[in-house]
Amino acid sequence: MLAVTVLAASGAGREEDGRVLHERAYYRPLRQLLGLLAGAQPPGFDSDIRMLWTFLKEWLDDHLEGSRGLSTARAPRHLSNVGWAMSQVVLTSAERSRLPEFFQLIGAVPGEDITPDALLASYLRWGSRRRASRIHDDVRAQSNFAEMLGAALHQALISWDGRPRDERGRTTLPLLLGYYSSRGQLRLVSRAAHGLENRGLKVGADEVYIGARDELFVVPGDPDTALAGRPIRASLSPSEQDPVSVAIDIQMRLLSTDIHVLASNGELGMWVEVAAASLDQEHVIIVRDQVAPEAERAMTDLGGGAMRLPRIRLPAGWCAYHRFHPTRLAQVPVHLSALVPGRTELAQLTGGLPVDRLRKLWLTDGPPDVILPEILDAQAGRVLRLDGAELPWPDDNRLRLRSLGLHSGDHELSVAGRTMRLTLLDEVVDHAGHGDARLTVERQPVEQTFLARARAAGASHGSPTSPTDACITVTLCGARLSTTEGSLPLLPRPHQLRVGGCYYVLGAPGQAARLRPVAPPWLTAVEPPLYSRDADLESTIVGLSFAPRWLLYVPAGRRATVTDISDVSARAGRDTAVRAPDFGAEIWQQASRHLELAEVAPQDMSAWRAWLSAAGSAGQYRRSTIGRQP
């Protein structure tokens, strides 16, 4: 029944010039589809149809928790009866599947309130880059289409959970282009999305591991297929951090655009696609042949120029440029706007002393700065309000909240159509602490005395065991333990890994293994729960086939670090609770890209340089090769 109401609002419910019919004219095609005689609203339509749409929304969003997609149907007040159906024909399924990409590009946050007019203006600019001519034509030709489109965008943002979705509305992973300059090879790259981290991704016979949220990884798959607009089909294994997760099949697609802009990425040691170019940074440009002349002129206008990139394998119909280094802003064709250095579409919170950025919590002594939008619409104007009071617009487009002396509590900031809420806290007390599975100790500046049971040290990923039932009195003060049997030495500080982080263990030159750190499973069963963001190095390298010498950590967006772990030994055997390390020549190549610029502690510098020299002598490491990596 609901499908028929949408059909009446689509092709069957439009005039010959394509305009959406007014509510009074909507019932004529609806009655024709239902085989009813001509007339007005069918009896019971106003109550029954609204009830069915409400039931559908509750079933999708609440009962199924979005597993089959989220409801996007809504009705403006002046179209309370037929607006539900009309809201489903304003945007096609393909256009709806691109909305998460649009929200991420403009810096929107799930669940926040941005006015429909502000969303519509940004969407029209964004759609121009993808040649979304249908949307622009409808906005110009129909008086009420712009209002309905803005309302549909507003509702989609409110119901958006921060995850990318495919045309069926199901969760997927974003797909980006990558380029290895040393090999002239095009690759596919993705980023771990919320709810899809810490699990395996299988494409055909190849499988990779997805780490922590927002971590980049190379996707097995054919870039030619993706550039041709065809999906990359993959299967996700159950999450190692979520025992109730299940395997799911997904489809990943590249952006449908004439141009792809790539910037150097230290995390992967390659060029990776970005939303827009940046001032004073070098870029690689991949563009369709038919718009290449326009792209060359645009790059020249932006002060960057560019050179053809011959040693890259591309499918027919595409070409590439490198050394594009924009130095100024300029007007370019809208479908090439990705070449223009990115400008702020919406206000953003940055810096300060954050407690939790996702929940927008900052310390009162360190509130964030507000980066104000550079692109403003005449209707929104430079309207800036804080807690209801209007403020002057700063000349440098940066509002420094610290200078306003804000008190602790909730604050509301309205900037050109975007409403942001943040909370300032005077102090934060953390009552959770690392401890034994049989006891929990609060962090307080006094010694703690409690009863505990003696147990033997076991594997850190295994469940702790208690060989005896004898109780002892334990006093904890700082890092020193004392018991009824006397004092114990300082607690050791084992090497800790960040769960989901990118780590490599290096042995002799040419030997490398990538680790997959996961938290001990028994931690989730402890009451109250202990931290599950750390993992022990010794448990992660069980079964390592060589003697560990260095630990290489590659964080996102920062320089890699190297730590001496020659005092750690790898146990033989297999720990079923830990994902085995990945070995092979490709793992060494991945790790070697980060060796030259890695940061090392001063006391380890001489040993590190000697190790690099030995690697160079063995032909496993070449400074010139690493230096050419982006």
Describe this structure in words.
With 630 residues, the chain is an alpha+beta fold. It is built from 15 helices and 33 strands. The strands form seven sheets. An eight-stranded antiparallel β-sheet has the order 6-3-2-10-9-11-13-12, covered by helices on one side. Strands 1, 15, 16, 18, 19, 21 and 22 form a seven-stranded mixed β-sheet that branches. The protein has a five-stranded mixed β-sheet with strand order 29-28-31-32-33, with helices on one face. Helix 1 (2-9) packs across helix 2 (23-34) and helix 7 (116-129) crosses helix 9. The longest helix has 19 residues, at 45-63. The radius of gyration is 29 Å and the shape is globular. The two termini are 56 Å apart.
Notable features of this structure?
single chain, 8-stranded antiparallel beta sheet, alpha+beta, 33 strands, 630 residues, 22% helix
In short:
This protein is of the alpha+beta class. β25 (480-483) and β26 form a beta hairpin.
Give start-end ranges of low-pLDDT stretches.
Answer: 11-21, 431-446, 454-469, 488-492, 624-630
Give Rg in angstroms.
Answer: 29 Å
Cα end-to-end separation: 56 Å
What's the mean pLDDT score?
75
Specify the overall morphology.
Answer: globular
E-strand count: 33
For the largest sheet, list the strands in their spatial order: 6-3-2-10-9-11-13-12
Count the DSSP helices: 15
The major sheet is characterized as: 8 strands, antiparallel
Beta-strand share of residues: 15-25%
Q: What fraction, in percent, of the residue positions are helical?
A: 10-25%
Helix/strand-derived class? alpha+beta
